[in-house]
Design brief:
The complex is a heterodimer of chains A (228) and B (291). Chain A is 20% helix and 33% strand. The termini of chain A are far apart. With 228 residues, chain A is an alpha+beta fold. A seven-stranded mixed beta sheet of chain A has the order 6-14-7-8-11-10-13. A five-stranded antiparallel beta sheet of chain A has the order 1-2-3-5-4. Chain A has two domains: 2-78, Gyrase A, domain 2 (2-Layer Sandwich); 91-224, Cyclophilin-like (Cyclophilin, Beta Barrel). Chain A has helices at 33-47, 73-78, 104-111, 115-122, 217-224; strands spanning 2-8, 11-17, 22-27, 52-57, 62-66, 91-96, 127-132, 139-142, 157-160, 164-168, 171-175, 179-181, 184-188, 209-214. The radius of gyration of chain A is 19 Å and the shape is elongated. Chain B has 291 residues and is mostly beta strands. Chain B has three helices and 21 strands. In chain B, the strands form four sheets. A seven-stranded antiparallel beta sheet of chain B has the order 7-6-9-4-1-12-11, with no helix packed on it. Classes of the chains: A alpha+beta (228), B mainly beta (291).
């Protein structure tokens, strides 16, 4: 159900009631919606609204899930101190063993570039974590160089190893858990960014920065204790 | 301390409780029991706190040996339950002696049966919940469905308790043809009037590939899908997705946190119980409603 739009965080947001306890908010901006969403999500997290149990940022929307049905959204948001900038943006260095990529043939053929050129481009960008999900710990990164855009596989793999780094369309990201998937696999990281035994389970958060650092297979084995 | 030994895992039996909230930003679904009504009833009937974990059996239950005396109850779908080869009733607690074997068969009606014992199954909490999320391989018992040879301990609750009884005319009835109420989703109005009416007047068949992530529906004639895309956004259990195939999917408790298919509606939370009990090859109709 479409509701009247709301003003907060210096922007106008369209509001859709997605479910009894869930609201979908979309900022009405021409560009840069991701930064606006991350700022709002960050402010909402900091506000610790008791009835607000889930804040789910995505590329152009923010989904809010409350613990009860009868929520006056305007009132709930009126107490939030919206800041224009996120104070605690972290940069995470993610080591990648590109030799463990599974789809180099496709990547080279599609881009018309060599493996070395692709690695240089992929590891020279400051990426922004756009969102996490759809699967537990899956990290979507914004900022992929358009020379590396490549369609998803026609037939998704039934199993992509945990900690794989992949490219799907115009996006790059990290499969934290082993799962089926259609992205082209460019490498694997020895680091774990999602561990259900930890609280919170993930070290990364939407809005943080990620840079990739190329490592050799020997370094991968040393760091991960796996043979790849 | 009690102990249960799994002699036969059944088709797909997992440990579930009320689920985990607050982790969707990491891509972690809520999980938890599919049929909230049957779950609540189970814990109430053995005098447990409301959020205690239970076993959730799907379509065909397993076989379990109790290695300690217990008070147990079964709610949800009738799976021809037997204790030492003698039939036991659903929706009423019963005493189990050490060595007794509880055996469940195929669901005669419905889809999911809950097994609760008086006390607390001892399974570690992951992100504040005991619920198994098998797609993520965490929670429950080793993040997977129960298998032959598994043992689960429980902490007994001693003393008298108040049980809840339900009258025979209040027993839940599980039909293989259900109607669920839904509210329109962000893209409902992308469907033209003819397509909307088709959706409202079609009895969709439940596909055998339906599971805790989603109920997949089929119709002879598929829904005409508008040739427009949306940017992936947050989704919740109950959301009716319309993929390019024109065959809708209703997201359930293990459903993904973010989705890119058109969101044509959201089944009301109170009707998710009905969907939890709809077996494969059952039929679902939709009725549009408002908050």
């Amino acid at each position: 159900m479409e509701l009247p739009s709301l003003q907060f965080n210096g922007n106008s947001w369209s509001v859709f009631r997605l479910g009894e306890k869930a609201w979908l908010l979309t900022p009405q901006v021409d560009s840069g919606s991701l930064a606006v969403i991350h700022q709002a999500a960050n402010s909402l997290e900091k506000a610790s609204i008791a009835s607000l149990i889930d804040i789910v940022p995505a590329y152009n929307s923010l989904t809010l899930i409350f613990s009860r049905k009868n929520i006056d959204l305007t009132k709930e948001l009126s107490h939030v101190n919206f800041a224009s900038e996120i104070q605690d943006v972290q940069t995470h260095v993610v080591q990648v063993c590109y030799d463990l990529g599974l789809d180099w043939k496709e990547l080279e053929a599609h881009s018309g570039m060599s493996k070395e050129e692709i690695i240089t481009i992929h590891s020279s960008v400051d990426y922004t974590i756009a969102m996490m999900g759809f699967l537990p710990g899956f990290v979507f990164l914004e900022g992929l160089d358009e020379r590396l855009f490549i369609p998803r596989k026609d037939n998704p793999r039934t199993k992509i190893p945990a900690s794989s780094v992949g490219i799907g369309g115009s996006q790059t990201g990290i499969y934290s858990l082993e799962s089926p998937g259609g992205w082209q696999v460019i490498g694997r990281t020895p680091q774990s960014f999602f561990d259900v035994r930890n609280e919170p389970p993930g070290k990364l958060k939407a809005g943080d920065k990620v840079v990739f650092e190329s490592i050799s297979k020997n370094e991968f084995i040393k760091l991960s204790g796996q043979n790849g | 301390m009690g102990k249960l030994t799994v002699l036969n895992g059944g088709l797909f039996t997992t440990i579930q409780d009320g689920g985990r909230e607050g982790y969707r930003k990491f891509g972690v679904p809520v999980s938890g029991i599919m049929d909230e009504q049957a779950y609540k009833l189970a814990n109430e009937m053995v005098g447990n706190a409301t959020n205690e974990p239970v076993l959730e059996c799907t379509l065909k239950g397993g076989e379990y040996r109790f290695d300690e005396d217990a008070i147990a109850v079964l709610t949800g779908a009738p799976m021809n339950p037997q204790l030492n080869n003698e039939p036991v009733n659903l929706n009423a607690f019963f005493k189990v002696n050490r060595g007794d074997i509880l055996k469940l068969g195929f669901a005669e009606k419905g889809c999911r049966t809950y097994v609760a014992i008086r006390g607390r199954w001892k399974v570690p909490k992951v992100m504040e919940s005991c619920s198994a999320c098998t797609m993520g391989n965490f929670g429950g018992l080793f993040g997977r469905a129960l298998e032959k040879g598994d043992t689960i301990s429980w902490e007994k609750l001693e003393g008298d308790f108040d049980t809840r009884e339900i009258l025979s005319n209040q027993m839940p009835y599980y039909s293989s043809k259900i109607t669920v109420n839904f509210i329109s989703g962000p893209e409902w109005n992308w469907l033209d009037e003819k397509t909307q009416n088709f959706f409202l007047n079609t009895s969709f068949k439940v596909h055998t590939q339906s599971n805790r992530m989603g109920i997949r529906l089929r119709s002879d004639e598929s829904i005409k899908v508008p040739d427009k895309q949306i940017t992936s956004s947050g989704v919740i259990p109950g959301i009716i997705q319309l993929p390019p195939s024109g065959q809708p999917i209703i997201l359930m408790k293990d459903g993904q946190t973010i989705g890119g298919y058109l969101r044509i509606g959201k089944v009301l939370d109170i009707h998710l119980n009905r969907l939890a009990q709809i077996p494969p090859n059952g039929y679902v109709r939709f009725k549009k409603t408002f908050f």
